[in-house]
Design brief:
This protein is about 0% helix and about 50% strand. The chain is mainly β. Strands 2, 4, 5, 6, 9, 10 and 11 form a 7-stranded mixed sheet that branches.
């Protein structure tokens, strides 16, 4: 059974940082592309960052490039998203996606 469990969301002031984690189980973590998406209130879900299997090719959404870093810890089947210099408009539920499955999401609130 595939499971993706996110954690690390919370409240942060503008300019602050958070690190999200997604623990994966039920499939070969190293083989498949894993991604972070986010969905703000009233908006469509959008890609934040993705990392491919095998060669670890990385792609970022244009608005986060240079501030966010995606990585995977293969020994712990965990995907991370380091988010720096967060902006209020990045308040959203952040989701992990892999192998055709979504996690339950973790809420990030950026506000002063």
């Amino acid at each position: 059974q595939v499971q993706l469990v996110e954690s690390g969301g919370g409240f942060v002031q503008p300019g602050g940082s958070l690190r999200l984690s997604c623990v994966a189980s039920g499939f070969d973590f190293t083989t498949y592309t894993m991604s972070w998406f986010r969905q703000a209130p009233g908006k469509e879900r959008e890609l934040v960052a993705g990392i491919s299997g095998a060669i670890n090719h990385i792609q970022y959404g244009r608005s986060v490039e240079g501030r966010f870093t995606i990585s995977r810890a293969t020994d712990k089947n965990t995907l991370h998203l380091q988010m720096n210099n967060l902006k209020p408009e990045e308040t959203a539920v952040y989701y992990c996606f892999a192998y055709g499955h979504w996690g339950q999401g973790t809420l990030v609130t950026v506000s002063s």
